[in-house]
Specification:
Blueprint (H helix, E strand, L loop, with lengths): L6 H5 L33 E8 L2 E4 L4 E3 L11 H12 L3 E4 L6 E3 L5 H7 L11 H12 L49 H6 L5 E2 L16 E2 L8
Antiparallel strand pairs: 1-2, 1-4, 2-3, 4-5, 6-7
Length: 227
């Protein structure tokens, strides 16, 4: 059965507002031989749990997978599941096992409802009504067509920058310096003699011109009586 948007919903789809559809006519009796194994769409069943944005578990223990909806992508799967829970959980529904169409008790087609709110995207060959509902969500954009998914199945993550190159720094070796000789000071040649350093030659520790009376480069010479 073809379900169509009302004129108002064709131009604008609200996130929390069901997409209005024409209420289906009375069920047409199934006359094909398949009627013995495939029951017609019927009310009296409700949604007991949500599998994902396009599949639910029914109160009769069966799983209902909504036709016309693609498998939710990783980026928007959680949002699609939450939308399905808000619209379908513990609600009476009509599920046509022949076509896979799932409708709310008031006749609203769930596939159109999800498409129009950006909680699903079309799969296979969509009907004109499904194209229109999906296009309305794209134009807003809303749901999976808005941020952060932007209509993509997965978020694009930029590759992390490569780690900086490892730089090894070698500590400079400490400069080796020849230790300076210890400063020696003798107040007089008597001190030099007592230290056992007499005579003192120029350049030796403790030599100074004041101790070298004749300025010949030899201080505290023995001939001057310094013993």
């Amino acid at each position: 059965m073809l379900v169509l948007f009302t004129a108002g919903c064709a131009t604008q789809v609200q996130q929390s507002r069901p997409v209005a559809v024409e209420k289906p006519a009375e069920d047409t009796p199934v006359t094909s031989s398949a009627s013995a194994t495939v029951p017609p769409a019927q009310l009296g069943i409700s949604v007991t749990s949500i599998v994902d944005g396009r599949a639910v578990m029914l109160s009769d223990g069966s799983k209902a997978e909504v036709s016309g909806l693609a498998q939710p992508g990783p980026c928007w799967a959680e949002a699609a599941g939450k939308f399905a829970a808000a619209m379908l959980l513990n609600q009476q529904v009509r599920y046509d096992r022949t076509t896979g169409a799932l409708s709310l008790a008031d006749g609203t087609d769930y596939a159109l409802l999800a498409l129009g709110n950006g909680a699903g995207r079309t799969a296979g060959t969509p009907t004109p009504a499904q194209k229109e509902a999906e296009g309305a969500a794209q134009r807003v954009p809303m749901g999976l067509w808005g941020a952060p998914c932007g209509g993509k199945e997965t978020l694009e993550t930029s590759a992390p920058p490569p780690p900086p190159p490892v730089t090894t720094t070698t500590k400079p070796k400490p400069a080796t310096t020849t230790p300076k000789p210890k400063t020696v000071f003798y107040a007089s040649c008597n001190d030099v003699v007592r230290a056992g350093k007499a005579p003192l030659y120029w350049g030796q520790p403790g030599y100074r011109v004041e101790l070298d009376e004749n300025r010949n480069g030899i201080a505290c010479e023995s001939r001057y009586g310094y013993r």
